């Protein structure tokens, strides 16, 4: 027995072969293959634990107003438990030798077939694994298990609202509505599911992006626009499951020594966002609507209350009509002069006063409108295969055509629509939607590509069109375009992201809290400029916006690149920044703080534009040696020097903030805390006063902006003058909200105390 | 081209071979195999649409108080697209010829492996497909696609509460708690999931049974106790997915000309239930508890109000203790003389008065009790592999050992416990539970079988033990034992089923309505005697029992084999048959109707015992030519002569009933309706008066029991005397129920009217 083991050991050693190709190194013996990326193990294959599986399945993508129900029936799934490493060419004999260009590894089933040839290549700084060839059948499912360290953390995945550190869960890559509630345990999600099938889940997002960074200091970007599932539930592997035309898959990699370098390399690859226009720092962009007079009157009211206004965002510039969801914008992208008389003149007048006008557009055009008839006649919309005519998309109580951006003529036509908005005098717009509502099953594109692959890609195209329009008009540095939807290469096309339609509440999964991990995950996916609606957007049933929510949200957004308000989907039923004089006063102070920060806003913006360091950064970005910071998802660094811990729960008077090792100064009174690392490198948690208006913010003592930050201390005198009397205040000013909130409290009390 | 097609056609024809083995006929050509069962196509295999797949997976069975979370990760799934038909022996050369004994078909992957050898054999009336051999790897997943007609209907599956006609959904075969609410769209299910993970779903059941009958007049019974999934969602196949030790699988078949013959043959195969004891027809079995005096006082109160009582069921005979779920029985199966003084004497006294006593038992024994210590010392409990000691099962707030019924000594010991209950004087008991709570992952049985396979089998063993105990004591015709849990062969062992723990409400998925499809599906699975708790069982939060529910449930159960009440899990908070004098009066009338029906009850019972025609039958059982009846799940025939349409919603004064073509007489006033079939063979729907106490029931005019049924008409005089004033009545008699119901109404009104 002893002799046999020894001889087997020698045999194994004899078979150990190591070879390198660019960043990739291959170590193989008779039973296993290990692939390293710049000395990091990224793939480990053994015959007992194969890294690659091929399969056959049929999928269904049911679209319910942008909430997709996606399912797959699997027919076959085959372990490819054997492999050979080939030099460059398929079908050559097996010769393992070094090459600086590319390698091909053939994974195959014991019996020889099916098999897949994966090509490992390097171009510039990027190392790529791509599918070279598949033999043995028509396979449309690929599973690739990348090796994982049990302790490794993974971030990115586009805009992820619930989790920042992603391991332990699976993330489908499919652009769709984020949903209402987004947590199957909450009653809001329950009702949204019950009434409209629209509750969403932890992973539903407008902007999925198969881009991931690891604390083992590498990134992976999957170039593949069909559905994929990123399964991070296993201790020892990250499993990527790809559907449909799997031969198109490319996995791009690079490594780095620091987080800064990693993000710089990732954004080198994906493209970076230019700095937003500087007029934004003159104050808040105010979302108002209802017509020229109403809009100007509200802005004047705000200004006379001390609110600094940089822009007026009128989403209903093209007109309105009423549905059960609330008032809806008329999606025919032309000025409605009945609703907005003199708008052309007022835009110019206000601009001279330093205030810009912004509008709204999306890639859908409402049926039977003038623009629709024009575009339909020219065949500019995505078509239905069944009918051969324009594929109508159902938006609840109206239908739309969707501009086929793969048709060069349609692309040019719509670009001119955008340029027309600039010429009219708008300084930007919400460029809403992207792929979310587009059916994946019956849609015919000009370029002939499968609708299953175009669904996600559409978000990229829509961003690209917007960027090109402002670039060609030479207004990219003066225009504020904000988008919610994205996919793979979107960071290279999108100017500014906004977090979409949060509920007007303090819930973790869909309220104020959720936009913090959303910003962090976008940042780690290469999208450095994000922001959110002050006060959230979606209201229904007992979900109504309170003054506290508006102010808490606003005080957080002071410490983000952009401060913009939204009236929400039901303006009259919800608290607005202009609801009472007191709210105007409180919000005015926030706009003053925001403008006070202008030099720092500009500094942070340049770092995003020049290096790809996101504006809102996770703590580990600058404090990687502190093991406590890798799971923090509700705190962020705004730039390198401000540490922000937004208050995201109701009725808080103090709040805890974690300080990593550094010298910190409390923004509101200059208190210094010198945090010395403990033996493991950890910092400390402190509790600070957190009255409404004083969000917990610290700055680095050694910051170049210390003098600027010192100017915030005088603002601490602010105290809510009637916080003790909030209930009566609410009853007097908005009895509707009051009744809903009281009912909600009674309901929970009775149900949960039984 | 023309020439080629012709020659191919000739080639194909040449290859068509047909051969027969018992009921099975095989038709094959080069690319396809069709297998017929007595001229019914049951399996169609082509290389493009293979009928058999093998796979490898790992499963997890998480037990949360009997609510299992079952998931599987699939590693491989291989289409076995080729086949050969072998005569008798594996490895013989391919000779296709007739044989009366058995055939083997080898399905294999194109490349030769993996492969599975399925044996087709016939024994007596039963034709069987069994797994003979699997080659090419360690496979633990098998998918078998049986051919389906798109219009075919399928019934059975054990006890299915939501759907009677099963196609369009998947049914896991796993004994577990049925859950609370059982419909993810209801708020009750939502809270049950939120608070305890116990909401259940449409398929969760105590009694899954892989037995199915088809309207193409064949049955299939799968002998396989590991987890299986019966996927009836496809138009063209019924797919059975088997996990774990797939080599044990056996699929048994038979055919028939009529439903009667089919059920007779199915119950010939599974075994039939003997007639229940005739003393049951003396009245209702009253579920009461609390001690000798309290029990006797309540029964006396009921009797003096005119209630006919056949038995007193005291579930707490062994003592009680309190948990947050309510009062719980002390699971040490010995008389508690402190709580029930003189019980031994009272049993004898009451028996002379024609009233029996019944008790309660289950296969679990509470930790540290005298019985536990005794059995633990002898090693009579199922053990944990991890600890080597008794595997404790968590029942919420107490732990139990479970008797290892595979240990012959333990089996004998527990049988004697049951016999002891008979000797003490009990005339039956609720034999609660079965496999539901037994862990599938860490359990060691005396017989060494895998706990994953024993979980379901345990329910069969527990029923077998009960039947043997009463048979050996020669009291099978005098004893009423009722069980909720079952599996594969349970119909041959269980005496009477009861439907388990319904919510005390009018919900479709877990209330009064749900026990109707439950009874019908049990009947079509070969279990002919079922019944349910009058008024349901589970109460919590706003789910509270009203007088209306008790009376509606009672009036339905008059027309079932057994009338038995239950106080539910929270007796004080819920309406009881003894709550007011008026309720006693109303319930007294129902017991009178039930006893009035005695000759018919006996007639129906004999049909169950002698032929396996279930007591509660779907309409198609006797009216197969009417195409309207195949989807009816809330109406049934009690025996062949009574057509019952229970009122299962609140506040109904009229109710619709479907009458198939026949001469029908309305039970409550003798109105005759002669239903003549229309050109498609359909009957008609009529609306009848449905005051509480007058459930819609018709009898066949040609029934031998017409005279008996005519005696019901005088009872129609009954009217609820205060139905118009029910709210005040409730407030005065049970303010707790009143408050909950008012709150529930307000809650729904406010939420759903917004």
TrEMBL record, chains A, B:
Family to which this protein belongs: Belongs to the glycosyl hydrolase 31 family.
Keyword Hydrolase assigned: yes
Domain Glycosyl hydrolase family 31 C-terminal stretches: 612-701
Gene: Ganc
Protein known as: Probable glucan 1,3-alpha-glucosidase
GO biological processes: carbohydrate metabolic process
Coiled-coil stretches: none
Source taxonomy: Eukaryota, Metazoa, Chordata, Tunicata, Ascidiacea
Natural source organism: Phallusia mammillata
NCBIfam families noted in UniProt: PRK10426.1 (NF007746)
First and last residue of the signal peptide: 1-19
Organism domain of life: Eukaryota
Segments forming domain Glycoside hydrolase family 31 TIM barrel: 276-590
CDD domains per UniProt: GH31_glucosidase_YihQ, GH31_N
Keywords noted in UniProt: Glycosidase, Hydrolase, Signal
GO molecular function: alpha-glucosidase activity; carbohydrate binding
């Amino acid at each position: 027995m002893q002799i046999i083991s020894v001889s087997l050991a020698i045999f194994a050693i004899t078979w150990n072969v190591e070879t390198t190709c660019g960043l990739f190194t291959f170590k193989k013996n008779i039973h296993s293959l290990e692939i390293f990326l710049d000395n990091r193990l990224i793939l480990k294959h053994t015959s007992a634990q194969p890294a690659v599986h091929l399969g056959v399945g049929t999928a269904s993508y049911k679209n319910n107003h942008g909430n997709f129900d996606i399912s797959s029936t699997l027919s076959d799934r085959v372990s490819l438990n054997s492999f050979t490493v080939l030099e460059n060419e398929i079908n050559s004999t097996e010769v393992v030798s070094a090459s600086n260009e590319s390698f091909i590894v053939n994974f195959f089933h014991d019996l020889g077939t099916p098999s897949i040839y994966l090509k490992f290549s390097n171009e510039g700084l990027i190392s790529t694994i791509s599918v070279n060839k598949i033999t043995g059948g028509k396979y449309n499912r690929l599973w690739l298990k990348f090796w994982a360290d049990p302790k490794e953390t993974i971030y990115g995945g586009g805009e992820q609202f619930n989790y920042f550190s992603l391991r332990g869960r699976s993330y489908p890559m499919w652009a769709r509505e984020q949903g209402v509630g987004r947590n199957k345990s909450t009653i809001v999600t329950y009702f949204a599911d019950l009434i409209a099938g629209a509750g969403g889940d932890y992973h539903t997002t407008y902007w999925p992006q198969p881009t991931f960074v690891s604390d083992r200091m590498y990134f992976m970007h999957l170039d593949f626009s069909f559905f994929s599932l990123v399964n991070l539930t296993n201790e020892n592997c990250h499993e990527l499951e790809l559907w449909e035309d799997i031969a198109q898959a490319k996995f791009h990699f690079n490594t780095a020594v620091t987080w800064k370098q990693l993000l710089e390399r990732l954004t080198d690859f994906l493209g970076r966002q230019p700095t937003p226009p500087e007029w934004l720092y003159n104050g808040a962009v105010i979302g108002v609507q209802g017509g020229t007079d109403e809009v100007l009157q509200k802005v004047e009211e705000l200004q006379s209350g001390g609110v600094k206004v940089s822009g007026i965002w009128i989403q209903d510039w093209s007109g309105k009509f009423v549905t059960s969801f609330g008032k809806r914008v008329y999606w025919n992208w032309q000025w409605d002069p009945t609703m907005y008389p003199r708008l052309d003149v007022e835009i110019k007048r206000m601009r001279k006063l330093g205030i810009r006008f912004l509008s709204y557009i999306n890639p859908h055009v409402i049926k039977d409108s003038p623009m629709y008839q024009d575009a339909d006649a020219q065949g500019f919309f995505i078509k239905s295969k069944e009918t051969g005519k324009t594929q109508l998309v159902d938006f609840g109580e109206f239908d739309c055509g969707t501009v086929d951006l793969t048709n060069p003529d349609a692309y040019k036509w719509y670009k001119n629509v955008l340029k027309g908005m600039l010429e009219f005098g708008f300084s930007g717009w919400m460029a809403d939607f992207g792929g979310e509502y587009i059916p994946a099953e019956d849609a015919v594109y000009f370029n002939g590509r499968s609708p299953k692959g175009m669904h996600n890609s559409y978000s990229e195209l829509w961003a690209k069109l917007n960027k090109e329009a402002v670039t060609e008009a030479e207004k990219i540095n003066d225009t504020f375009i904000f988008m919610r939807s994205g996919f793979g290469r979107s960071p290279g096309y999108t100017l500014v992201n906004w977090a979409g339609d949060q509920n007007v509440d303090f819930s973790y999964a869909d309220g104020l809290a959720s936009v913090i991990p959303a910003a962090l995950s976008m940042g780690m996916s290469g999208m450095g400029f994000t922001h959110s609606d002050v006060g959230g957007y979606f209201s229904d049933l007992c979900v109504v916006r309170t003054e506290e929510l508006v102010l808490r949200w606003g005080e957080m957004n002071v410490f983000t690149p952009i401060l913009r308000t939204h009236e929400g989907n039901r303006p009259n039923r919800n608290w607005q920044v202009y609801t009472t004089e007191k709210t105007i006063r409180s919000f005015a102070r926030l706009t003053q703080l925001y403008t006070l920060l202008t030099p720092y806003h500009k500094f942070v913006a340049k770092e995003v534009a020049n290096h790809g360091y996101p504006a809102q950064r996770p703590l580990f970005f600058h404090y990687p040696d502190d093991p406590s910071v890798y799971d923090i998802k509700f705190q962020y660094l705004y730039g390198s020097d401000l540490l922000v811990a937004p208050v995201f729960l109701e009725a808080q008077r103090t709040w805890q903030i974690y300080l990593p090792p550094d010298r910190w100064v409390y923004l509101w009174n200059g208190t210094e805390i010198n945090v010395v690392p403990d033996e493991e490198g950890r910092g400390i948690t402190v509790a600070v006063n957190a009255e409404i208006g004083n969000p917990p913010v610290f700055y680095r003592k050694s910051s170049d902006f210390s003098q600027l930050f010192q100017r915030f201390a005088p603002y601490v005198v602010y105290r809510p003058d009637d916080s003790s009397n909030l209930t009566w205040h609410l009853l007097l000013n908005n009895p509707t909200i009051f009744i809903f909130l009281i009912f909600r409290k009674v309901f929970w009390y009775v149900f949960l105390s039984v």
